[in-house]
Amino acid sequence: MGATVSPRSAHAESTLVVDNDGNGTATNCDASVSAFSSIQAAVNAGVPGNTIFICPGTYDEQVVVTTSNLAINGAGAGSTVLRPSVVVQNTVRPGNIFPVAPILLIEGATGVTVANLTIDGSDADSGAGIFPTCGGIPFYAGIYYKNSSGSIEATHITNIMSATACTFAVLVQTDQSGFGGVANVAVTNNLVDRYGLAGINCIGQNAACTVTRNTIRGEGPVNDLLQVGIIIRAEASSTISGNVITDHFFLPAHGVPESATGIFLFFARPDSNPHLLQDNIFSNNQLDVQRLGTSAAFD
């Protein structure tokens, strides 16, 4: 009788391999060695300290990570593509009941690294952004760190657009009241483009985002999308440097409150980012930096 071969135990292997055809190794994705056929299956099998290596290919799935100290590594942006055909609302924002539909959700976990892949929302949703405000409507996100920590590196987050949800390429969030968790995320060397409201949104009293050496590119000049490259709000703290932030421009704007912005500090920690204009490169933004409810500092 033939035996069914399954991927080796996560406890026995430090690297778990994912390939669409269910075969491959971390050094040879064409090898005839049993592997996981979905990212979620490998994540479910993983234990702290594991690396999930994802072979080149397009993966039609929505992924949830709740295990700490996992590294989720693709074979390179453009080679490993996470592009779900459907993204459902599978969590809510901390401290309330408003739903969120993320392509990749990291919830209640620490030390989760995402690297070397593309997160593409083009098949799941599309359309112009919500204007003038998002309010209590659903969120749609490429990567969502909810009360979690880790890093996003060398990844392309793109096509996070919707006509029915408030959209963010990267969302880092804790309860805005200061209760309910901590989020600390480093976003480094990524390309963030084709998003709705914001490229990176860091929210909450116990949230901290280090945003360095990324290219964050809006859709402007446009007349249907009011965009921000980076938002730091609700007493979140941040370090923002070495980024190229371009093309945030809303044509129908009537003054500063309606202007598209490269970086928007909205009741952020007052000691955050005193020299944003010096520390980043801006081009073709309606406003490069805007502060609201945040202590004045030298830009």
What does this structure look like?
The chain contains 2 helices and 25 strands. The protein is mainly beta and 299 residues long. It folds into 2 domains: 1-54, no CATH class; 56-292, Pectate Lyase C-like. Strands 4, 7, 8, 11, 14, 17, 20, 23 and 25 form a 9-stranded mixed β-sheet that branches. Strands 1-2-5-9-12-15-18-21 form an 8-stranded parallel β-sheet, covered by helices on one side. The protein has an 8-stranded parallel β-sheet with strand order 3-6-10-13-16-19-22-24. It starts with 14 loop residues before the first strand and ends in a 7-residue tail after the last strand. 51% of the residues are buried. Residues 1-5 have low confidence and may be disordered.
Topology readout:
Elements: E1 15-18, H1 39-45, E2 51-54, E3 57-59, E4 63-65, E5 71-74, E6 80-82, E7 91-92, E8 99-107, E9 112-115, E10 118-120, E11 139-146, E12 149-153, E13 156-160, E14 166-173, E15 183-188, E16 191-195, E17 198-203, E18 207-212, E19 215-217, E20 228-233, E21 237-241, E22 244-246, E23 261-266, H2 276-279, E24 281-283, E25 287-292
Parallel strand pairs: 1-2, 2-5, 3-6, 4-8, 5-9, 6-10, 8-11, 9-12, 10-13, 11-14, 12-15, 13-16, 14-17, 15-18, 16-19, 17-20, 18-21, 19-22, 20-23, 22-24, 23-25
Antiparallel strand pairs: 7-8
